Amino acid sequence: MQKNRFKILFGTISVLFFVIFCKLFYIQMIQGGKYSGISNKKRIRTVDIDTLRGTIYDRNGSVLAVDKHSFELTVMYEKLFDTHSCFKQNILPRVSEVKNPALNRGLCKECHIDKATWVEKVAGLLDIPYIDVFNKATEIVKNVENIKHAVEKRNERKIRIKEETVPHSIASNVPWEKVAKFEVEMLNLPGIQIETNPVRLYPQGDMSSHIIGYVGKMGEKEMQNYNFKKKWFDSLKNSDESESEFFTQKAVSMDALIGKNGIEKIYNSRLMGIPGERFEEVTLDTMRADKLILERPSIPGNNIFLTIDTRIQGIAEKALGKRKGSVIVMDPRNGEIIAMASFPRYNLNTLNRDFAALSKNRLKPFLNRPIQSVLPPGSTFKIITAIAALEENKIDENTHFPCYGSLKVGNIRFRCNIGNGHGLLNIEEAMQYSCNVFFFQTAIILGGTLLKKWAENFGLGDTTDVGLIYEKKGNFPESRSISQTINLSIGQGAMLVTPIQIARMIATIANGGWYTKPHILQKISDYKGNILVNNKYELTEKINISEKNMNIIKSSLRKVVTDGTAKKADLEELQVAGKTGTTQTARENENHAWFIGYAPFENPKYCFVVVVEHTEGHGGAVAGPIAREILTQIGI
């Protein structure tokens, strides 16, 4: 019985295998020509669907950076490689920028005529020189080969990379009239097509250029270091590791735009989004899609909202004008940067065209001066000297020192800012008139160690982590002599700070001693509007300064404006308290002019820093009017 069952089972399986064998024989041997013809004419192609990069907004929703669609002419890599090979092997004739209708006559008609004649047609339709098309093909091929070499070196084997199988852009922002011409000729241009591609647009032009930053294609170092991609998608939630890596590979290609500076670089992983994919059947003769098989939609990038107010930013930049320097306006209650102006600037929309000239500009327009200019703070530092001496009980409000125009210490004579001196002054009067001699004598009894301690309490000589890249640290040196301590007490010598550090310092005074963290990110949302990050800071750490001493400092800063070194700036009615500063430079008759402060005096809403570099004037005369123009227009 069991033997019969086995025979039946074996027989059934044998029949099934015989049927399958017959079917395979029929398909491969009898109908093989039919299917071979189909496979030789059709192919499944994978096409990446570009995603929209996230939009950057100011605090009120004004657009600072956004993606828009433009037309691009793309060519399959195989055609570009063949053309490059012909050109490299001198199969093509020498080309010039002068259009020559007979250019293709010198091509190797035996085997290469179809490999490169498309160049003539494309150049004619685009109305550009042939050499431009050849150069673009060469550039693309070299970049792809660099990527291929880096990937193969890392994997220690030959690999066919994605860039070898996809079309590449050889012309961007193609006008609609030329797009129409290409559509007519497309059947005669296999492997060439018009695609829509996102292009980054900056509606404000050069406004906030150092903050926003810019995007560009991967450079050579980035191409050879693919590891940097892995951290781009750390923010993907609810995705397993393999899925995250898959999207990473799809997102980063040779043509992908990545952040190069500013917010565009810092939040690149948030802004990039996730590309989609389209699987389509194409005819090999024309490389045109005949049928859509499957499409995976793209996911736009996250949107970034900054604390910047575009209106106030515009006012600050206009007030600074063509003067080399910085302006910072900040909310001392929470550390939000309302405006951060730097001059010279650059137009983000024309950066590619202007880059060479900007790089050679001796004024260094790429320098983000509020966070990268390291300068002596001058008399603005006297605020720290005064607080240190008061808190360490070295002086009080009744302490008086005489000023006769200079002070001799050892063999060195240190001079005041007024030749005849200020007479007998207390701390408020010394601050009001910015008397150097008073602070020289204060520094002698205070000492360099305590001075450094209080400078560090306010964060001077250290980065603020404002949220922008390449922030400079500055320097607060150890004082090794009385002479060095004297120089440091008035913000001279080897001390170097950035404007953003001084903004943090004056904000701490304005809010009554609460340590402030300057920041420029307000929130992050996804493309549907869901809030992913809400960057609200609360003041939680207070510097240990007595209320009495804080009131002395505040009162003296108010007197600077009403009757002191900033009186001519005409800021009294705006209820401003502040401090002027002037530091000498290596160049004769050139100073760095500072004016810092806050307003309104009783309940500060804004604190500000204005510094003009390499100017002939002084703090109150040069920087003071800029502050007045800004505060008058923004409203206090």
From TrEMBL:
Domain Penicillin-binding protein transpeptidase: 325-631
Name of the protein this chain belongs to: Penicillin-binding protein
MF terms (GO), sorted A to Z: penicillin binding; serine-type D-Ala-D-Ala carboxypeptidase activity
Xref: Pfam families: PBP_dimer, Transpeptidase
Record keywords, A-Z: Carboxypeptidase, Hydrolase, Membrane, Protease, Transmembrane, Transmembrane helix
Subcellular location: Membrane
Record GO cellular component, one term: plasma membrane
InterPro entries listed in its UniProt record: Beta-lactam/transpept, Beta-lactam/transpept-like, PBP_dimer, PBP_dimer_sf, PCN-bd_Tpept, Penicillin-binding_protein_2
GO biological process, one term: peptidoglycan biosynthetic process
Record domain Penicillin-binding protein dimerisation: where: 51-282
Segments crossing the lipid bilayer: 6-26
